[in-house]
Amino acid sequence: MATALTAALGLTGAALATGVMLQPAGAATTAIPAWPSATGSQSVSKTIEVSGTYDGGLKRFTGSGDLGDGGQDEGQDPIFKLKDGATIKNVILGTPAADGIHCSGSCTIQNVWWEDVGEDAASFKGTSTSSVYTVYGGGAKKASDKVFQFNGAGKLVVTKFQVADFGKLVRSCGNCSKQYKREIIVNDVDVTAPGKSLVGINTNYGDTAALRSVRVHGDSSKKIKPCVRYTGNSTGAEPKETGSGPDGTYCKYTASDLSYD
Prior knowledge:
Shape: globular
Number of helices: 2
Number of strands: 19
Distance between the termini: 30 Å
Largest sheet: 6 strands, parallel, barrel
Structural class: mainly beta
């Protein structure tokens, strides 16, 4: 049963090696894992390209030079660029973090921590409908807008992650020049207010978002929207929000999939 479930969530490679256990819907709130301490630091002035597996040993990486302005401008270069099939693990991204991590195709981001999200924490840009992007463990803080920007095609699975003080946890690109149908799964995560929304999807392109075992902290009034629906476009115009909440077709979750404390 566990094997079938993990396969259904697209958790492969490094994520499977860590022994994923799906949490039951509405699981009791548990302690949020502590953030790691950096083992060292490294300044990065030019994007590090990764193929295969890159283990950062929990060093803190920060941008400098062209990667060092710490702004929110679109089109910044990332600290790390992952080639199709690459894995990055045990990395802390400090400030400034430029545009974080870019995945050119399927990738695994394991135990990566963003202390102060710059433009975005990670962007997923694969063009194949079979691309799978796995975020397993780690966390992000201080994202004035998006944590994960889903521009490409395929499936994004976020598991055992924690986020605090953010705009959106995952946004399916609302106005990219080329659009795709995208699948998003958020499972076994801790969310700490303030925040605006967990997932934003484009229903006109057939996007779906499934939420399971989401623990929300410090938001008893439930201001954080779990799933927001938009009509996306490929013209660059601001996408139109059309609704939010579970609908069984695009936003796939029930009240029992979220707990609050």
